[in-house]
Every structure is written in structure tokens, then in C-alpha cells.
Write a structure and sequence with these properties.
Layout (H helix, E strand, L loop, with lengths): L12 H4 L10 H8 L7 E3 L10 H9 L12 H11 L6 E4 L1 H13 L5 E4 L6 H8 L3 E4 L10 H10 L3 E7 L11 H8 L4 E5 L20 E6 L12 E4 L2 H10 L7 H11 L2 H23 L4 E3 L6 E6 L4 H10 L2 E6 L7 E5 L3 H12 L2
Parallel strand pairs: 1-11, 3-4, 3-5, 5-6, 6-7
Antiparallel strand pairs: 2-8, 7-8, 9-10, 10-12, 11-12
The chain binds pyridoxal-5'-phosphate (PLP).
Length: about 375
């Protein structure tokens, strides 16, 4: 028997060196800790949909009879319905266990050891996480003061670094809610790399570029049911791919990546689009109200957003204290303290009642 300590050396060294993941506190644990019933907690920290899923989702899940059978590896019915929804042929679509799974799959497909992925922070954290996990290298090109992309730096880098494979752009961008404009995207598409456009929040802004995939062999567009359709807990996302990429992607996808419940719920959602769009309209209207109301506080400087959240700089107060004080009252918001987002908070757009409770709490600070 070797001494126990040697087993430790069997772990991949890069993972052994990784900082541990800080898990978010589960909803029920938080509710117990705060002594506030889960239903009364105002959760504005993860851009979830306050209206939840379509009523048809509950019905469809209750009526589904094939939970004991493995799901369709091709997600055929879902992809067919998605094709109607986005107006792109189903042969361009791959469904995934959330858009998060597709981010990981795309990186696995293109990035081998020491290949480079361009990241444009502040942005969604999974691009960095999955790149590093898969042995790739991240190069950060910080966004400009107004959070728009520094296109010139991207062009510079892409023309000078031969190891670059991918660039990830979220539009609307999480956490600021800004859009990547057409001109800028066209520029990027001329570079010798694959552009992954993450449209997780596109239903709140409009102007999807999903059909650009038909004309650009280096564009991938990622979408999800988590935000607009209220299915974050069921994990269903999808991507729109040029055929040449899709054929390779299918080789590395886990066969049962979308489970029966997820596919059933997504299909039921697509049968109830006008109702879900009504919820989206409510959220967009509420975003306007929330923005104006946040602006009225002299310690907050909100940025205009095309998504279902608003980023604000906190002035003359400690954003960490603000977050904690709100949390004690059962209002959860996201707080950032990276160099670029020092003393910033991000608030998801909730229902009108949730906004009122938040504003009331802010006015007593
Ligand atoms: C929430 C979010 C996702 C995750 O989508 P899932 O389908 O829930 O995995 C992807 N991209 C961005 C930018 C997000 O904010």
C-alpha cells in the first residue's frame, strides 16, 4: 500500500491548483437562514424570470408518460419547433443542457492545449471557466468605459496571434446590458477566428442575429429558455451553427444531454410563445420604471440596459454593505468588486411589486 498522500498526485495538476468554486447559497437554505419564507424572498441576483414558466409547462410535465425512457439524442421535435420560433432550419440547431453546456462543447471542439480564447470582460464568467477547465488560455480584452467592445484591440490581437480560435461576445452583455452592433459584428466576422455570439437575453432586446449563421461560416449563436421562458431550473439551451461545425459538434455531444422534462417543458413553452412574450413585455416595461427609479437615488448610477437586469455604479456608499443590508431584508442582488466593476451592483428586473419593495428598502438606506 502506498502512503495515502500519494493519491493526491493522481489529480490533474491544473485542477489541483484551481481555486475552489464558491457555491451560491440554495434558495431554501437562505430562506431558513433569514427566517423569511422562500416565497417572500425577492430574488434579483441571477436574472431569472419572476413570472416563471408558461402554465402549459406544468400541464405538459404532469401529462408526460415517458420519464422512464431515454430521451431523443437528436431532440428532433424540439429542434423542429425551434426552427419555427427562430426562422432557421432545424439542421442548423443543436439543443443543450442550458446554453452553458454549449459554451463548454464549443470550447472542447476548438480549443486544445495552449489555444487561445478571446474574452471581453466584464462579461459572463463561464467563457473563462470553461476555457481554463479545458486547458485553453484566456486573453482578456477589457471593454471600453461605456462597456462597448474594443474592436481595434480584437482585430490587432486576432491578426497577430496565430493560436486564437474563438471569441465570445454576449449581446446583450451580462452584466451591463449593452448590445454589440451590426458593424462591429461584421468586423469580427472578417477575422480568422470563430465568433460565438451569446444571445441569452435577446428576447428582451430584439434584433437576433441567429440567421446571420446562414451567411457566415465562422458564426455561432447561442440561445436559452432560462431567461425569457422562465426555465432556468430545467436547463434547456440551444445553438445555431453552420453545418460544417455542427457535424463535428454532434460527435462530441453527450447523447442524452437534454432530458425528457427539459425537452417537454421547452416544447410546451414554444406552444405558448405569445403568453411568454407578454411576460417579456412586462419585464421590459418594468426595466424602464426600475431604471428611472434607480437614477433618482444620488448614490446610484445605473447603465442603460437591453436585458432583464440593470448594472449600477454605487457612489459614496459601500456596495457590499448595500448588498448585505438588502439581503437581510430578503432582497437578493448581485454585487461586483472586480477592478473594472469596483463598487457595482446588478439588479434583475422583477415584478412591479418586487420593484416597489426594493425601492422602499433603498430609500431607507
Ligand atoms: C444566464 C446566461 C447563460 C446561461 O444560460 P443557461 O441556458 O441557463 O445555461 C448564458 N449566457 C449568458 C450571458 C447568461 O447570462
Amino acid at each position: 500500500m502506498p502512503p495515502k498522500t500519494e493519491y493526491k498526485n493522481l489529480i490533474r495538476p491544473d485542477i489541483a491548483d484551481m481555486a475552489p468554486y464558491t457555491p451560491i447559497v440554495p434558495f431554501d437554505v437562505l430562506s431558513q437562514r433569514l427566517g423569511i419564507p422562500a416565497g417572500d424572498i425577492i430574488k434579483l441576483d441571477a436574472n431569472e424570470n419572476p413570472y416563471g414558466p408558461s402554465a402549459r409547462v406544468y400541464q405538459a410535465l404532469a401529462n408526460e408518460t415517458y420519464y422512464h425512457i431515454y430521451p431523443d439524442p437528436d431532440s428532433s421535435s424540439l429542434r423542429q419547433a425551434l426552427s419555427q420560433y427562430i426562422g432557421v432550419d432545424a439542421t442548423h440547431i443543436v439543443a443543450g443542457h442550458g446554453a452553458d453546456e454549449l459554451i463548454d462543447l464549443v470550447i472542447r471542439l476548438f480549443v486544445a492545449h495552449s489555444d487561445v480564447v478571446v474574452n471581453c470582460p466584464p462579461t459572463f464568467g463561464m467563457y473563462r471557466f470553461d476555457t481554463e477547465l479545458n486547458g485553453g488560455k484566456i486573453i482578456d480584452l477589457e471593454r471600453k468605459e461605456d462597456f462597448s467592445l474594443d474592436t481595434e484591440s480584437v482585430v490587432d490581437l486576432a491578426t497577430n496571434n496565430k493560436n486564437i480560435k474563438l471569441i465570445f461576445i454576449s449581446s446583450p452583455n451580462n452584466p451591463d446590458g449593452g448590445i454589440l452592433d451590426d458593424t462591429c459584428l461584421r468586423h469580427l466576422l472578417q477575422l480568422p477566428l470563430i465568433v460565438v455570439l451569446d444571445e441569452a437575453y435577446i428576447e428582451f432586446s430584439g434584433g437576433s442575429r441567429a440567421n446571420w449563421v446562414l451567411e457566415h461560416e465562422n458564426l455561432i449563436v447561442l440561445r436559452t429558455f432560462s431567461k425569457w421562458a422562465g426555465l432556468a431550473g430545467l436547463r434547456v439551451g440551444y445553438g445555431i451553427f453552420p453545418h460544417w461545425i455542427l457535424s463535428h459538434l454532434l460527435k462530441i455531444k453527450q447523447p442524452y444531454n437534454v432530458n425528457v422534462a427539459g425537452a417537454t417543458a421547452a416544447l410546451a413553452s414554444l406552444s405558448d410563445v405569445s403568453q411568454l412574450q407578454e411576460n417579456v413585455r412586462k419585464i421590459v416595461a418594468e426595466r424602464g420604471r426600475l431604471y428611472a427609479a434607480l437614477q433618482a437615488f444620488d448614490f446610484l448610477e445605473p447603465y442603460p440596459s437591453e436585458a432583464n437586469f440593470i448594472l449600477s455604479r454605487v457612489i459614496g456608499k459601500d456596495a457590499a454593505v448595500l448588498k448585505t443590508t438588502l439581503a437581510e431584508r430578503g432582497i437578493l442582488i448581485r454585487y461586483f468588486d472586480t477592478p473594472r466593476l469596483q463598487n457595482h451592483v446588478r439588479v434583475s428586473v422583477g415584478t412591479p411589486t418586487q420593484t416597489s419593495v426594493l425601492l422602499e428598502a433603498l430609500s431607507t438606506l
